[in-house]
Amino acid sequence: MIWSDVTTESIDPGAVLARVGSPADGAVAFFAGVVRNENEGRPVSGMEYEGYDEMAREELAAIVAEAAERAGSDRIGAVHRLGRLAVGEVSVAIAVSSPHRAEAFAAARYIIEELKKRLPVWKREHYLDRDAQWLEGHLPGQEAGPGGETGEHGGNRHLTEREAGRQG
Fold first, then answer.
1. What's the pLDDT tens digit per position in 82-114?
2. In sequence order, which residues have a C-beta less than 8 Å from that of residue 138 and are 6 or more positions away?
3. Extents of the domains making up the chain
4. CATH architecture under which domain 2-167 falls
5. 120 within 8 A of 59, measured Cβ to Cβ
6. What pLDDT, in 10s, does the model give residues 127-157?
7. Nearest to 107 by CA among 148, 70, 77, 59
8. Residues in contact with 78: Cβ distance below 8 Å, sequence separation at least 6, in sequence order
């Protein structure tokens, strides 16, 4: 069953995994994005995700449907969280089940890369020094580093509050 959601509730990875799978499948790929405790040498206390709820739901559904078509599997699901998250909390979870691992991995990768480009969700990183900055998202065409990060600063160039105001 193809499934996607955008929620303000905590994401349970086990519940996402339970939505995929079949006795005919030999592979299940799972990806969880979590809030990390450091970015560019700065201690992070949490992350805030803001977005257009209904538009984000529709776009995530479209991305997941595209991935399902590419993978040839309808056993695929993704969920993205909105709101304030603490370090270690899951911000996005993706699960794909298919007969072979290549298709499952490719579909999960497609979903995370496309949602970073297309989902109308913005990240505001909060630091232990009480500062907070909006982060710029993934920019298409940037080379990925060894950990999948892009650009000079892992695709997370900081926007000052003033820059964020000019862009919004």
1. 999 999 999 999 999 999 999 999 999 999 999
2. 113, 116, 117, 150, 155
3. 2-167
4. Alpha-Beta Complex (3.90)
5. yes
6. 999 889 898 765 444 444 444 444 333 333 3
7. 70
8. 3, 4, 5, 16, 60, 63, 64, 92, 93, 94, 95, 111, 115
